[in-house]
Amino acid sequence: MEEEENIPVIILDPGSWKIKIGFAKDDFPNDEIPCVYIEKISDKSKDIKFGIEAVEDYMKIRYNHTKSHMIKENDFGHKEGMSNLVNVKMTFADPRHPLSNN
């Protein structure tokens, strides 16, 4: 049985428009990524991405990085390099979000 302090949880926080990832302990959550990224394709069309797809597209457009540059699997099959993605200042696509410039 897993120790009680190492229970992994993922929280979707609609108030901050972020997915918060970490363990249920004092320093929770460890990482945060935006929930949604919207790219305007034309006047009548938008491409909406959620979760890690939103981060990948945002990073590729804004910083010219791709998934292969930023995320690698370790020996246990877990993805590493997320801290490189989530520590960059993000732009919030939803105009209702208090940090949005839209």
Automatic annotation (TrEMBL):
Pfam families referenced in this protein's UniProt entry, alphabetically: Actin
Swiss-Prot/TrEMBL catalytic activity: ATP + H2O = ADP + phosphate + H(+)
Domain of life: Eukaryota
Name of the featured protein: Actin-like protein, putative
